[in-house]
Amino acid sequence: MRTIRKTFVALTATAALALTLTACGSDDGNSDKSTTNSGASSNSNSGSSSSKETGDHNAQDVTFAQGMIPHHQGALMMAKAAAGKASSPEVKSLAARIEKAQTPEIETMTGWLKTWGKDVPAAAESMPGMESMESMPGMDHAAAGKEFDKNFLTMMIEHHKGAVTMATTEKAKGKYGPATSMADDVIRTQNAEITEMTKLLGKS
Description:
By secondary structure, the chain is an all-alpha fold. It has helices at 2-24, 59-85, 89-116, 146-173, 177-203.
């Protein structure tokens, strides 16, 4: 379990680093707003809710995308490992759902960052700590089965909790409508999966 914890720390540290670098690179919450034409002023009396429906974004939206992309990539690496190594049909089903949900979210957030002219995080495979996923106890061929299932569920629960925290911040401070909407989806879906995984752990 000590090795598992070290690898998990490496996973979460990568996302934390992306968050820190983005925060340091922004002057304030207004520095990443999209430019608008003179017609924008005519809609200023529509209230703050109107900004959620436009293409405007702020520094928090950038932070969310740049942090969540590598975080999702880490989850996908674990999910792909589970597809071939998990012994429980429930764990395999969960892993498939995680991959199906998070792959298009990565693509969507990548599109946002490119549109905003912001850096897209490197692929998870090239990040420190990510390459050791396959050599983890319980995540390799020799340790397949119930041990793998237990380690996968334990790590994924903590990983999901990190995503929920990031999404909660985006929901509270973000401006870009599609990003705050995705944050809602992350909170709802991953909290439900945390409950599901906790139950599966109790059976292992």
